[in-house]
Amino acid sequence: MYLVKFFLITILISCTMSYPTLETVASVDINRYAGKWYEIASFPQRFQKGCRCTTAEYGVSDKGYLTVNNQCRKGDGKISGIKGKAFVVKGSNNAKLKVQFFWPLKGDYWIIDLAQDYSYAVVGTENRKYCWILCRTPKMEPTVLNEILTGLRNNGFDTNLLAYTDQDCGSN
Fold first, then answer.
1. Is the terminal CB of the chain with fewer CB neighbours within 10 Å at N or C?
2. How do 52-60 and 66-73 pair as beta strands?
3. DSSP string, the chain
4. Nearest Cα to 121, choosing from 32, 20, 19?
5. pTM
6. Where are the chain's structural domains?
7. Architecture of the domain made up of 26-164
């Protein structure tokens, strides 16, 4: 009986866990954010297993949302991808989005760091289970990457979990 109570209490505590507030950037110009991004690193996710040369391309829809086109190359060299939509969260100055690949499910997409010139972006979620480091080019300057990693650690992300994306895509 004590064991059952222990497990019930553990489940209740984990369901009510709160996370430190995760700050987003002050605002995002969606038109400048649109375009192609290369994934530099991310927390490994099932849906990205076996991927390399991963990119995300965003477009501005005339219907008020962003179009999303994520692609990667699998081990056999074949292109794998998924298309979706991203909706701006009201009151977030475009820094928080809800991304949808399968209706009706939507996931958080918070822009927590963004270069002034929109050359890189860092996306995460408040529970720190998702994180992507994106760049407009396939390679990122090591000094910039180190600054980003320091910022992530300061915001409670375990940077040891990051998997660095192979962007050496060659001809296949």
1. N
2. antiparallel
3. -HHHHHHHHHHHHHHT---------S---HHHH-EEEEEEEE---GGGTT-EEEEEEEEE-TTSSEEEEEEEE-TTS-EEEEEEEEEEPTTSTTSEEEEEEETTEEEEEEEEEE-TTSSEEEEE-TTSS-EEEEESSSS--HHHHHHHHHHHHHTT--GGG-EE-----TT-
4. 32
5. 0.85
6. 26-164
7. Beta Barrel (2.40)
